[in-house]
Specification:
Helix content is 80%, strand content 0%. The chain has 507 residues and is mainly alpha-helical. It is globular and about 65 Å long.
Length: 507
Protein backbone atom coordinates (compact mmCIF):
# COMPACT_ATOMS: atom_id res chain seq x y z
CA UNK A 1 0.00 0.00 0.00
CA UNK A 2 3.11 2.17 0.01
CA UNK A 3 2.01 4.91 -2.40
CA UNK A 4 -1.79 4.61 -1.99
CA UNK A 5 -2.43 6.13 -5.43
CA UNK A 6 -2.11 9.65 -4.06
CA UNK A 7 0.82 10.52 -6.32
CA UNK A 8 -1.43 10.42 -9.39
CA UNK A 9 -3.88 12.86 -7.82
CA UNK A 10 -1.07 15.13 -6.59
CA UNK A 11 0.64 15.38 -9.97
CA UNK A 12 -2.68 16.07 -11.69
CA UNK A 13 -3.63 18.85 -9.26
CA UNK A 14 -0.23 20.55 -9.44
CA UNK A 15 0.08 20.55 -13.21
CA UNK A 16 -2.30 23.44 -13.94
CA UNK A 17 -0.84 25.97 -11.45
CA UNK A 18 2.67 25.04 -12.59
CA UNK A 19 1.76 25.81 -16.21
CA UNK A 20 0.11 29.08 -15.13
CA UNK A 21 3.17 30.04 -13.06
CA UNK A 22 1.10 30.24 -9.86
CA UNK A 23 3.88 29.34 -7.41
CA UNK A 24 1.80 30.25 -4.36
CA UNK A 25 -0.80 27.63 -5.26
CA UNK A 26 1.91 25.07 -5.98
CA UNK A 27 3.40 25.77 -2.56
CA UNK A 28 -0.02 25.46 -0.93
CA UNK A 29 -0.62 22.10 -2.64
CA UNK A 30 2.83 20.91 -1.64
CA UNK A 31 2.22 21.81 2.01
CA UNK A 32 -1.14 20.01 1.92
CA UNK A 33 0.27 16.86 0.36
CA UNK A 34 3.24 16.83 2.73
CA UNK A 35 0.80 16.87 5.63
CA UNK A 36 -1.32 14.10 4.05
CA UNK A 37 1.72 11.88 3.48
CA UNK A 38 3.00 12.34 7.03
CA UNK A 39 -0.44 11.50 8.47
CA UNK A 40 -0.72 8.35 6.36
CA UNK A 41 2.81 7.33 7.30
CA UNK A 42 1.96 7.74 10.99
CA UNK A 43 -1.24 5.70 10.58
CA UNK A 44 0.66 2.88 8.87
CA UNK A 45 3.33 2.94 11.61
CA UNK A 46 0.72 2.68 14.37
CA UNK A 47 -1.27 0.02 12.50
CA UNK A 48 1.87 -2.00 11.86
CA UNK A 49 2.83 -1.92 15.52
CA UNK A 50 -0.69 -3.01 16.45
CA UNK A 51 -0.38 -6.00 14.10
CA UNK A 52 2.90 -7.21 15.66
CA UNK A 53 1.24 -9.41 18.34
CA UNK A 54 -0.96 -11.02 15.67
CA UNK A 55 1.86 -12.01 13.31
CA UNK A 56 1.92 -15.71 14.28
CA UNK A 57 -1.67 -16.02 13.04
CA UNK A 58 -0.66 -14.76 9.59
CA UNK A 59 2.35 -17.07 9.20
CA UNK A 60 1.39 -20.69 9.71
CA UNK A 61 4.30 -22.95 10.76
CA UNK A 62 6.66 -19.98 10.88
CA UNK A 63 8.64 -21.77 13.60
CA UNK A 64 10.09 -24.03 10.91
CA UNK A 65 11.97 -21.04 9.49
CA UNK A 66 14.93 -19.89 11.57
CA UNK A 67 14.17 -16.15 11.57
CA UNK A 68 12.80 -13.64 14.07
CA UNK A 69 9.28 -12.96 12.78
CA UNK A 70 8.77 -9.75 14.78
CA UNK A 71 12.14 -8.22 13.95
CA UNK A 72 11.87 -8.87 10.21
CA UNK A 73 8.34 -7.41 10.11
CA UNK A 74 9.46 -4.35 12.08
CA UNK A 75 12.35 -3.75 9.68
CA UNK A 76 10.03 -3.92 6.68
CA UNK A 77 7.55 -1.61 8.42
CA UNK A 78 10.29 0.91 9.19
CA UNK A 79 11.52 1.00 5.58
CA UNK A 80 7.98 1.51 4.25
CA UNK A 81 7.06 4.25 6.74
CA UNK A 82 10.33 6.02 5.99
CA UNK A 83 9.31 6.56 2.35
CA UNK A 84 6.48 8.87 3.44
CA UNK A 85 8.98 11.38 4.81
CA UNK A 86 9.94 12.48 1.28
CA UNK A 87 7.02 11.29 -0.88
CA UNK A 88 5.65 14.84 -1.23
CA UNK A 89 8.97 16.03 -2.66
CA UNK A 90 8.97 13.17 -5.17
CA UNK A 91 5.47 14.19 -6.29
CA UNK A 92 6.62 17.80 -6.58
CA UNK A 93 9.49 16.83 -8.87
CA UNK A 94 7.19 14.65 -11.00
CA UNK A 95 4.62 17.44 -11.25
CA UNK A 96 7.25 19.58 -12.97
CA UNK A 97 7.69 16.69 -15.46
CA UNK A 98 11.18 15.95 -14.16
CA UNK A 99 10.42 12.27 -13.67
CA UNK A 100 13.90 11.40 -14.85
CA UNK A 101 15.26 12.82 -11.59
CA UNK A 102 13.09 10.65 -9.33
CA UNK A 103 13.63 7.64 -11.59
CA UNK A 104 17.40 8.10 -11.38
CA UNK A 105 17.28 8.46 -7.60
CA UNK A 106 15.07 5.40 -7.25
CA UNK A 107 17.26 3.35 -9.59
CA UNK A 108 20.38 4.41 -7.69
CA UNK A 109 18.77 3.43 -4.39
CA UNK A 110 17.73 0.03 -5.74
CA UNK A 111 21.20 -0.58 -7.17
CA UNK A 112 22.76 0.26 -3.80
CA UNK A 113 20.23 -2.00 -2.04
CA UNK A 114 20.90 -4.97 -4.34
CA UNK A 115 24.68 -4.65 -4.12
CA UNK A 116 24.57 -4.48 -0.32
CA UNK A 117 22.15 -7.39 -0.12
CA UNK A 118 24.32 -9.61 -2.33
CA UNK A 119 27.45 -8.79 -0.34
CA UNK A 120 25.80 -9.29 3.07
CA UNK A 121 24.05 -12.51 2.01
CA UNK A 122 27.42 -13.90 0.91
CA UNK A 123 29.13 -12.75 4.12
CA UNK A 124 26.41 -13.41 6.71
CA UNK A 125 23.55 -15.42 5.11
CA UNK A 126 21.31 -13.31 7.37
CA UNK A 127 17.78 -12.37 6.35
CA UNK A 128 17.81 -9.60 8.97
CA UNK A 129 20.79 -7.84 7.40
CA UNK A 130 19.17 -8.40 4.01
CA UNK A 131 16.21 -6.29 5.21
CA UNK A 132 18.45 -3.68 6.83
CA UNK A 133 19.88 -2.98 3.36
CA UNK A 134 16.41 -1.88 2.25
CA UNK A 135 16.28 0.78 4.98
CA UNK A 136 19.79 1.96 4.07
CA UNK A 137 18.70 2.35 0.44
CA UNK A 138 15.59 4.33 1.45
CA UNK A 139 17.69 6.67 3.62
CA UNK A 140 20.02 7.17 0.65
CA UNK A 141 17.05 8.08 -1.61
CA UNK A 142 15.67 10.42 1.04
CA UNK A 143 19.02 12.24 1.37
CA UNK A 144 19.51 12.72 -2.38
CA UNK A 145 15.89 13.83 -2.83
CA UNK A 146 16.26 16.43 -0.07
CA UNK A 147 19.47 17.82 -1.59
CA UNK A 148 18.05 18.12 -5.10
CA UNK A 149 14.62 19.50 -4.19
CA UNK A 150 16.00 22.10 -1.77
CA UNK A 151 18.37 23.26 -4.47
CA UNK A 152 15.91 23.15 -7.36
CA UNK A 153 12.58 24.00 -5.68
CA UNK A 154 13.65 25.85 -2.56
CA UNK A 155 11.28 28.78 -3.27
CA UNK A 156 8.31 26.39 -3.45
CA UNK A 157 9.26 24.42 -0.33
CA UNK A 158 9.91 27.38 1.99
CA UNK A 159 6.88 29.36 0.76
CA UNK A 160 4.23 28.35 3.31
CA UNK A 161 0.78 28.86 1.79
CA UNK A 162 -2.71 27.62 2.61
CA UNK A 163 -4.93 25.97 0.04
CA UNK A 164 -8.31 27.44 -0.86
CA UNK A 165 -11.42 25.44 -0.02
CA UNK A 166 -12.47 24.80 -3.64
CA UNK A 167 -9.10 23.31 -4.62
CA UNK A 168 -8.95 21.38 -1.36
CA UNK A 169 -12.36 19.82 -2.06
CA UNK A 170 -11.23 18.77 -5.54
CA UNK A 171 -8.00 17.32 -4.21
CA UNK A 172 -9.78 15.38 -1.48
CA UNK A 173 -12.26 14.01 -4.01
CA UNK A 174 -9.51 12.77 -6.36
CA UNK A 175 -7.38 11.41 -3.52
CA UNK A 176 -10.33 9.50 -2.03
CA UNK A 177 -11.11 7.89 -5.37
CA UNK A 178 -7.48 6.90 -6.03
CA UNK A 179 -7.09 5.75 -2.42
CA UNK A 180 -10.09 3.41 -2.72
CA UNK A 181 -8.77 1.97 -5.99
CA UNK A 182 -5.39 1.37 -4.40
CA UNK A 183 -6.88 -0.26 -1.30
CA UNK A 184 -9.01 -2.54 -3.46
CA UNK A 185 -6.03 -3.54 -5.59
CA UNK A 186 -4.03 -4.33 -2.45
CA UNK A 187 -6.86 -6.46 -1.07
CA UNK A 188 -7.03 -8.45 -4.31
CA UNK A 189 -3.34 -8.71 -5.18
CA UNK A 190 -1.96 -9.40 -1.69
CA UNK A 191 -4.86 -11.36 -0.23
CA UNK A 192 -3.80 -14.53 -2.02
CA UNK A 193 -0.35 -14.51 -0.39
CA UNK A 194 -1.74 -13.76 3.07
CA UNK A 195 -4.39 -16.49 2.81
CA UNK A 196 -1.85 -19.04 1.55
CA UNK A 197 0.48 -18.11 4.42
CA UNK A 198 -2.30 -18.19 7.05
CA UNK A 199 -4.25 -21.29 5.99
CA UNK A 200 -1.74 -23.43 4.10
CA UNK A 201 1.77 -22.50 5.29
CA UNK A 202 4.78 -20.29 4.65
CA UNK A 203 6.70 -23.09 2.89
CA UNK A 204 4.06 -23.34 0.16
CA UNK A 205 3.94 -19.54 0.01
CA UNK A 206 7.69 -19.48 -0.66
CA UNK A 207 7.29 -21.82 -3.64
CA UNK A 208 4.28 -19.88 -4.90
CA UNK A 209 6.22 -16.59 -4.61
CA UNK A 210 8.92 -17.94 -6.93
CA UNK A 211 6.32 -18.33 -9.66
CA UNK A 212 4.74 -14.92 -9.07
CA UNK A 213 8.15 -13.19 -8.90
CA UNK A 214 8.95 -14.29 -12.45
CA UNK A 215 5.41 -13.38 -13.51
CA UNK A 216 5.75 -9.92 -11.96
CA UNK A 217 9.02 -9.34 -13.81
CA UNK A 218 7.37 -10.35 -17.08
CA UNK A 219 4.24 -8.22 -16.62
CA UNK A 220 6.45 -5.29 -15.57
CA UNK A 221 8.13 -5.55 -18.96
CA UNK A 222 4.79 -5.63 -20.78
CA UNK A 223 3.61 -2.52 -18.91
CA UNK A 224 6.44 -0.58 -20.58
CA UNK A 225 4.41 -0.80 -23.81
CA UNK A 226 1.47 1.04 -22.28
CA UNK A 227 2.82 3.38 -19.56
CA UNK A 228 3.61 6.29 -21.93
CA UNK A 229 0.16 6.13 -23.55
CA UNK A 230 -1.97 7.67 -20.77
CA UNK A 231 -1.22 11.29 -21.65
CA UNK A 232 -1.58 10.58 -25.37
CA UNK A 233 -5.00 9.03 -24.84
CA UNK A 234 -5.94 11.90 -22.53
CA UNK A 235 -5.32 14.33 -25.42
CA UNK A 236 -7.27 12.00 -27.69
CA UNK A 237 -10.39 12.38 -25.57
CA UNK A 238 -10.10 16.17 -25.92
CA UNK A 239 -9.31 16.29 -29.65
CA UNK A 240 -11.55 13.49 -30.90
CA UNK A 241 -15.19 12.55 -30.36
CA UNK A 242 -16.41 9.58 -28.32
CA UNK A 243 -16.75 7.30 -31.36
CA UNK A 244 -13.15 7.88 -32.41
CA UNK A 245 -11.94 7.22 -28.86
CA UNK A 246 -13.97 4.01 -28.81
CA UNK A 247 -12.37 2.82 -32.03
CA UNK A 248 -8.90 3.49 -30.61
CA UNK A 249 -9.91 1.55 -27.49
CA UNK A 250 -10.89 -1.41 -29.65
CA UNK A 251 -7.54 -1.24 -31.43
CA UNK A 252 -5.59 -1.19 -28.18
CA UNK A 253 -7.67 -4.05 -26.83
CA UNK A 254 -6.73 -6.29 -29.77
CA UNK A 255 -3.09 -5.21 -29.53
CA UNK A 256 -3.19 -5.96 -25.80
CA UNK A 257 -4.71 -9.39 -26.46
CA UNK A 258 -2.01 -10.36 -28.96
CA UNK A 259 0.79 -9.32 -26.59
CA UNK A 260 -0.93 -11.19 -23.74
CA UNK A 261 -1.18 -14.40 -25.74
CA UNK A 262 2.51 -14.27 -26.67
CA UNK A 263 3.80 -13.54 -23.17
CA UNK A 264 1.45 -15.63 -21.03
CA UNK A 265 1.45 -18.75 -23.20
CA UNK A 266 5.23 -18.41 -23.25
CA UNK A 267 5.29 -18.11 -19.46
CA UNK A 268 3.32 -21.32 -18.97
CA UNK A 269 5.48 -23.26 -21.43
CA UNK A 270 8.81 -22.47 -19.73
CA UNK A 271 8.00 -21.60 -16.10
CA UNK A 272 8.89 -25.01 -14.69
CA UNK A 273 12.24 -24.92 -16.50
CA UNK A 274 12.94 -21.42 -15.16
CA UNK A 275 12.08 -22.45 -11.59
CA UNK A 276 14.42 -25.44 -11.93
CA UNK A 277 17.26 -23.31 -13.30
CA UNK A 278 16.84 -20.37 -10.90
CA UNK A 279 15.68 -21.98 -7.65
CA UNK A 280 16.03 -25.75 -7.95
CA UNK A 281 13.79 -28.62 -9.03
CA UNK A 282 12.70 -29.34 -5.45
CA UNK A 283 10.73 -26.04 -5.41
CA UNK A 284 8.40 -26.97 -8.27
CA UNK A 285 4.65 -26.88 -7.69
CA UNK A 286 1.95 -28.92 -9.41
CA UNK A 287 1.31 -28.03 -13.03
CA UNK A 288 -2.27 -27.17 -12.06
CA UNK A 289 -0.91 -24.32 -9.89
CA UNK A 290 1.14 -22.77 -12.72
CA UNK A 291 -1.91 -23.21 -14.99
CA UNK A 292 -4.22 -21.16 -12.76
CA UNK A 293 -1.46 -18.62 -12.04
CA UNK A 294 -1.09 -18.04 -15.80
CA UNK A 295 -4.86 -17.78 -16.33
CA UNK A 296 -5.27 -15.47 -13.33
CA UNK A 297 -2.61 -13.00 -14.46
CA UNK A 298 -3.90 -13.07 -18.03
CA UNK A 299 -7.43 -12.25 -16.85
CA UNK A 300 -6.03 -9.34 -14.83
CA UNK A 301 -3.87 -8.23 -17.76
CA UNK A 302 -6.91 -8.02 -20.04
CA UNK A 303 -8.24 -5.18 -17.84
CA UNK A 304 -5.32 -3.00 -18.92
CA UNK A 305 -6.97 -1.35 -21.90
CA UNK A 306 -10.14 -0.42 -20.04
CA UNK A 307 -8.09 0.84 -17.08
CA UNK A 308 -5.85 2.89 -19.37
CA UNK A 309 -8.77 4.65 -21.08
CA UNK A 310 -10.65 5.03 -17.81
CA UNK A 311 -7.77 6.85 -16.12
CA UNK A 312 -7.05 8.97 -19.20
CA UNK A 313 -10.70 10.06 -19.42
CA UNK A 314 -10.92 10.79 -15.67
CA UNK A 315 -13.81 8.37 -15.07
CA UNK A 316 -12.09 6.45 -12.28
CA UNK A 317 -14.19 8.32 -9.71
CA UNK A 318 -17.42 6.59 -10.77
CA UNK A 319 -16.29 3.06 -9.85
CA UNK A 320 -14.42 3.98 -6.67
CA UNK A 321 -16.45 1.51 -4.57
CA UNK A 322 -15.82 -1.40 -6.91
CA UNK A 323 -12.29 -2.25 -5.65
CA UNK A 324 -13.45 -2.37 -2.01
CA UNK A 325 -16.37 -4.68 -2.79
CA UNK A 326 -14.14 -6.78 -5.02
CA UNK A 327 -11.47 -7.11 -2.34
CA UNK A 328 -13.92 -8.18 0.37
CA UNK A 329 -15.63 -10.75 -1.87
CA UNK A 330 -12.25 -12.06 -3.04
CA UNK A 331 -11.04 -12.63 0.53
CA UNK A 332 -14.23 -14.44 1.55
CA UNK A 333 -14.33 -16.58 -1.58
CA UNK A 334 -10.61 -17.44 -1.34
CA UNK A 335 -10.92 -18.64 2.26
CA UNK A 336 -13.99 -20.70 1.34
CA UNK A 337 -12.25 -22.27 -1.65
CA UNK A 338 -9.21 -23.21 0.45
CA UNK A 339 -11.39 -25.53 2.51
CA UNK A 340 -13.50 -26.67 -0.46
CA UNK A 341 -10.58 -27.64 -2.69
CA UNK A 342 -8.75 -29.24 0.24
CA UNK A 343 -11.84 -31.31 1.03
CA UNK A 344 -12.43 -32.37 -2.60
CA UNK A 345 -8.88 -32.97 -3.87
CA UNK A 346 -6.51 -32.79 -0.90
CA UNK A 347 -4.03 -30.32 0.58
CA UNK A 348 -2.03 -29.89 -2.64
CA UNK A 349 -5.00 -28.25 -4.38
CA UNK A 350 -5.71 -25.69 -1.64
CA UNK A 351 -3.47 -23.15 -3.42
CA UNK A 352 -5.43 -23.72 -6.63
CA UNK A 353 -8.63 -22.85 -4.77
CA UNK A 354 -7.23 -19.48 -3.65
CA UNK A 355 -6.25 -18.50 -7.19
CA UNK A 356 -9.50 -19.76 -8.74
CA UNK A 357 -11.41 -17.50 -6.34
CA UNK A 358 -9.41 -14.51 -7.59
CA UNK A 359 -10.12 -15.44 -11.22
CA UNK A 360 -13.86 -15.66 -10.55
CA UNK A 361 -13.84 -12.31 -8.72
CA UNK A 362 -12.07 -10.62 -11.62
CA UNK A 363 -14.37 -12.09 -14.26
CA UNK A 364 -17.63 -11.32 -12.47
CA UNK A 365 -16.79 -7.91 -10.97
CA UNK A 366 -13.85 -6.16 -12.65
CA UNK A 367 -14.65 -7.25 -16.20
CA UNK A 368 -18.24 -6.12 -15.71
CA UNK A 369 -18.06 -2.88 -13.71
CA UNK A 370 -15.00 -1.22 -15.26
CA UNK A 371 -16.18 -1.47 -18.91
CA UNK A 372 -19.65 -0.32 -17.82
CA UNK A 373 -18.20 2.86 -16.29
CA UNK A 374 -15.92 3.56 -19.26
CA UNK A 375 -18.59 3.08 -21.90
CA UNK A 376 -21.28 4.94 -19.98
CA UNK A 377 -19.32 8.04 -18.97
CA UNK A 378 -16.59 8.24 -21.65
CA UNK A 379 -17.92 6.59 -24.81
CA UNK A 380 -21.62 7.29 -24.14
CA UNK A 381 -22.75 3.89 -25.42
CA UNK A 382 -23.60 0.36 -24.31
CA UNK A 383 -20.70 -2.01 -23.49
CA UNK A 384 -22.63 -5.05 -24.78
CA UNK A 385 -20.36 -5.70 -27.78
CA UNK A 386 -17.29 -5.29 -25.58
CA UNK A 387 -18.60 -7.89 -23.11
CA UNK A 388 -19.18 -10.44 -25.87
CA UNK A 389 -15.76 -9.93 -27.42
CA UNK A 390 -13.90 -9.82 -24.10
CA UNK A 391 -15.30 -13.04 -22.67
CA UNK A 392 -14.91 -14.77 -26.04
CA UNK A 393 -11.22 -13.80 -26.15
CA UNK A 394 -10.65 -15.08 -22.60
CA UNK A 395 -12.33 -18.40 -23.47
CA UNK A 396 -10.13 -18.73 -26.58
CA UNK A 397 -7.02 -18.09 -24.49
CA UNK A 398 -8.10 -20.67 -21.88
CA UNK A 399 -8.64 -23.19 -24.69
CA UNK A 400 -5.23 -22.41 -26.18
CA UNK A 401 -3.63 -22.75 -22.74
CA UNK A 402 -5.27 -26.16 -22.29
CA UNK A 403 -4.13 -27.31 -25.76
CA UNK A 404 -0.62 -26.05 -25.02
CA UNK A 405 -0.58 -28.07 -21.78
CA UNK A 406 -1.05 -31.31 -23.73
CA UNK A 407 1.45 -30.28 -26.41
CA UNK A 408 4.45 -29.61 -24.17
CA UNK A 409 7.44 -31.94 -24.48
CA UNK A 410 9.36 -33.74 -21.75
CA UNK A 411 13.09 -33.74 -22.49
CA UNK A 412 15.89 -34.78 -20.15
CA UNK A 413 17.88 -31.63 -20.92
CA UNK A 414 16.37 -28.60 -19.11
CA UNK A 415 17.66 -26.02 -21.58
CA UNK A 416 16.56 -28.12 -24.56
CA UNK A 417 13.09 -28.53 -23.06
CA UNK A 418 12.87 -24.78 -22.38
CA UNK A 419 13.63 -23.78 -25.98
CA UNK A 420 11.49 -26.54 -27.50
CA UNK A 421 8.42 -25.70 -25.42
CA UNK A 422 9.03 -22.00 -25.93
CA UNK A 423 8.92 -22.55 -29.68
CA UNK A 424 5.66 -24.50 -29.33
CA UNK A 425 4.08 -21.64 -27.35
CA UNK A 426 5.15 -19.16 -30.04
CA UNK A 427 3.45 -21.31 -32.66
CA UNK A 428 0.22 -21.22 -30.61
CA UNK A 429 0.36 -17.48 -29.96
CA UNK A 430 1.26 -16.56 -33.53
CA UNK A 431 -1.62 -18.69 -34.76
CA UNK A 432 -4.02 -16.77 -32.50
CA UNK A 433 -2.50 -13.44 -33.55
CA UNK A 434 -2.84 -14.27 -37.25
CA UNK A 435 -6.49 -15.27 -36.77
CA UNK A 436 -7.27 -12.10 -34.81
CA UNK A 437 -5.65 -9.84 -37.41
CA UNK A 438 -7.40 -11.65 -40.26
CA UNK A 439 -10.82 -11.37 -38.62
CA UNK A 440 -10.50 -7.82 -37.29
CA UNK A 441 -10.82 -5.27 -40.08
CA UNK A 442 -10.53 -2.24 -37.78
CA UNK A 443 -7.24 -3.50 -36.34
CA UNK A 444 -5.75 -3.90 -39.82
CA UNK A 445 -7.01 -0.43 -40.72
CA UNK A 446 -5.31 1.24 -37.74
CA UNK A 447 -2.10 -0.72 -38.23
CA UNK A 448 -2.04 0.48 -41.85
CA UNK A 449 -2.67 4.08 -40.75
CA UNK A 450 0.04 3.97 -38.08
CA UNK A 451 2.65 2.46 -40.40
CA UNK A 452 1.68 4.89 -43.16
CA UNK A 453 2.12 7.84 -40.82
CA UNK A 454 5.44 6.53 -39.53
CA UNK A 455 6.94 5.78 -42.94
CA UNK A 456 5.17 8.75 -44.52
CA UNK A 457 6.71 11.05 -41.93
CA UNK A 458 10.12 9.47 -42.49
CA UNK A 459 9.75 9.86 -46.26
CA UNK A 460 8.60 13.46 -45.81
CA UNK A 461 11.61 14.23 -43.62
CA UNK A 462 13.94 12.71 -46.20
CA UNK A 463 12.33 14.73 -48.99
CA UNK A 464 12.58 17.88 -46.90
CA UNK A 465 16.27 17.22 -46.23
CA UNK A 466 16.88 16.71 -49.96
CA UNK A 467 14.97 19.91 -50.78
CA UNK A 468 16.95 21.90 -48.21
CA UNK A 469 20.24 20.48 -49.49
CA UNK A 470 19.28 21.31 -53.07
CA UNK A 471 18.27 24.85 -52.11
CA UNK A 472 21.56 25.40 -50.29
CA UNK A 473 23.49 24.11 -53.32
CA UNK A 474 21.60 26.38 -55.69
CA UNK A 475 22.21 29.35 -53.41
CA UNK A 476 25.93 28.68 -53.31
CA UNK A 477 26.12 28.19 -57.06
CA UNK A 478 24.12 31.36 -57.66
CA UNK A 479 26.46 33.38 -55.45
CA UNK A 480 29.73 31.92 -56.78
CA UNK A 481 30.07 34.25 -59.85
CA UNK A 482 30.05 37.22 -57.53
CA UNK A 483 32.02 35.63 -54.68
CA UNK A 484 34.82 34.11 -56.70
CA UNK A 485 36.38 34.49 -60.14
CA UNK A 486 38.12 31.91 -62.28
CA UNK A 487 40.70 34.57 -63.17
CA UNK A 488 43.35 35.44 -60.63
CA UNK A 489 42.73 39.03 -59.59
CA UNK A 490 45.42 41.37 -58.29
CA UNK A 491 45.61 42.01 -54.60
CA UNK A 492 43.67 45.13 -53.68
CA UNK A 493 45.47 47.89 -51.81
CA UNK A 494 44.81 48.18 -48.12
CA UNK A 495 42.18 50.74 -47.24
CA UNK A 496 40.67 51.93 -43.99
CA UNK A 497 37.03 51.41 -43.06
CA UNK A 498 36.30 55.05 -43.82
CA UNK A 499 37.82 54.71 -47.29
CA UNK A 500 35.77 51.64 -48.28
CA UNK A 501 33.19 52.27 -50.98
CA UNK A 502 29.55 51.33 -50.57
CA UNK A 503 29.03 47.69 -51.69
CA UNK A 504 27.18 47.22 -54.96
CA UNK A 505 24.45 44.57 -55.28
CA UNK A 506 24.54 42.67 -58.58
CA UNK A 507 21.28 42.64 -60.50
Amino acid sequence: MAELGIGTAITFCMYKPIVEGNNDKVSALYCLFKKIYLIIGAIIAVSGCAILPLLPYFAKNYQAIDVNLYLTFALMLFSVVLTYAFSAKISLVNAYKNNYITTTINSGGLLLQYVLQIVLLILTSSFVWYLVCRSVAVIFQWTITEIITRKKYKAIIINKQKIDQETKAEVVKNVKAMFMHKIGNVLVNTADSIIISSFIGVAILGKYSNYTTIMAAMTGTIVLFFTPLTSIIGHLFIEENADASNRYCNFFYVFNYIIGCVFFLGYYSVIDNLITLFFGGELLLRKSVSFVITLNYFVQFMKSTVGLFRDASGTFYYDRWKPIVEGIINIGLSIGFVYLFKYLWGDDFAVVGVIVATIITNLLICHVVEPHVLYKYAFKKSPKNYYIRNYMCIVIFAGALTALHFSLLNINNTWGELFANGAISLAFSFGIAAAVVALNKDFRHYIHNITSKLFGRKRHNQQQEVAETTAETETVEASEPFAQSSVQEPVAPTVTDNDKPEPTIPE
